[in-house]
Design goal:
It is found in: Postsynaptic cell membrane; Presynaptic cell membrane. Strands 6, 7, 8, 9, 10, 11 and 12 form a seven-stranded antiparallel β-sheet that branches. Strands 2-1-3 form a three-stranded mixed β-sheet. Strands 4-5 form a two-stranded antiparallel ribbon. By secondary structure, it is an alpha+beta fold. The chain is built from eleven helices and twelve strands. Helix 6 packs antiparallel against helix 7. The radius of gyration is 30 Å and the shape is flat. Strand 4 and strand 5 form a beta hairpin. It starts with a helix and ends with a strand.
């Protein structure tokens, strides 16, 4: 009875002293699990709680130390939800793991990542992202910065239109300045300055040739007697395959790069897809950019499924690809 009286009215029924039974009953369960599932803009991340709270006074630190789990937003599966850029968050999470900033080459979204770091209140990461980038090993860049992106890069380093490598410039005969050197030495405000080139343009200003393949997966239902009209389901996604610089030139902001965000411009990818679902719109964009269709292929499978009227319908699933070329 004395033990019962001593524990009456205290939180969790525990007292300040007593045996092992009293200490175990007074231990509060942790507010958050050791493994935390995050849904950031539709991208799911699984990490340890100690990782997200590794930077004191940051937004994530306050969320998972100063708030209750029921106070945080969750998705339909119970994961903690953050309405931010889910693909840039992986760099935020990498930084939280070891407090080191490591970005891939040809990273064009440095300013957007800095904005995400400001939102998550990571001042040291903001400072590192705002600092000028250190030049890598190799020869120093040319003095001029106006013109075509080096190797089609989307970074900040630009070369002048018509720029030639030093060993090529030294081969000019007679000691007279070559047209390339003369063009590169023009003032940016001069009337003879050439236009800026996109990564898909060559040095003479013409558009580069290449191939782009777009594909889609579709399905439709036909009754067993094949008398009724086919019920076609909408195209879920239009995929884009080809050189990165060409795909960005043709589709621009309508190109979803989320599945392959760090692909250099001169490399090839098969992981892009479009933000719209209309094939005709994709055809129009390719045609406006000088592409024409050169090939088309399609494969399909068939399966039977029972419908509500006890009859069996044929469900056809096909994948179709269109190959476009610009010469």
């Amino acid at each position: 009875m004395a033990l019962a009286d001593s524990t009456r009215g205290l939180p969790n029924g525990g007292g300040g002293g007593g045996g092992s039974g009293s200490s175990s009953s007074s231990a509060e369960p942790p507010l958050f699990p050791d493994i935390v599932e995050l849904n950031v803009g539709g991208q799911v991340y699984v990490t340890r709680r100690c990782t997200v709270v590794s930077v004191p006074d940051s937004l994530l630190w306050r969320m998972f130390t100063q708030q209750q789990p029921q106070e945080l937003a969750r998705d339909s599966k119970g994961r903690f939800f953050l309405d931010r850029d889910g693909f840039l968050f992986r760099y935020i999470l990498d930084y939280l793991r070891d407090l080191q900033l490591v970005l891939p080459d040809y990273f064009p979204e440095r300013s957007r990542l800095q904005r995400e770091a400001e939102y998550f209140e990571l001042p040291e990461l903001v400072r590192r992202l705002g600092a000028p980038q250190q030049p890598g090993p190799g020869p120093p860049p040319p003095p001029s910065r106006r013109g075509v992106h080096k190797e089609g890069s989307l970074g900040d380093e630009l070369l002048p239109l018509g720029y030639a490598e030093p060993e090529q410039q030294e081969g000019a005969s007679g000691g007279a300045p070559s047209p390339t050197l003369e063009l590169a030495s023009r003032s940016p405000s001069g009337s003879a300055a050439g236009p800026l080139l996109t990564p898909s343009q060559s040095l003479d200003g013409s558009r580069r040739s290449g191939y782009i393949t777009i594909g889609y997966r579709g399905s439709y239902t036909i009754g067993r007697d094949a008398q009724a009209d086919a019920k076609f389901r909408r195209v879920a996604r239009i995929t884009v395959c080809g050189k990165t610089s060409l795909a960005k030139e043709v589709f621009g902001d309508t190109l979803n790069e989320s599945r392959d965000p760090d692909r250099p411009p001169e490399r090839y990818t098969s992981r892009y897809y479009l933000k719209f679902n209309f094939l005709e719109q994709a055809f129009d964009k390719l045609s406006d950019s000088g592409f024409h269709m050169v090939a088309c292929s399609s494969t399909g499978t068939c399966a039977f499924a029972s419908s509500t009227d006890q009859s069996e319908d044929k469900i056809w699933t096909s994948y179709t690809e269109y190959v476009f070329c610009r010469e």
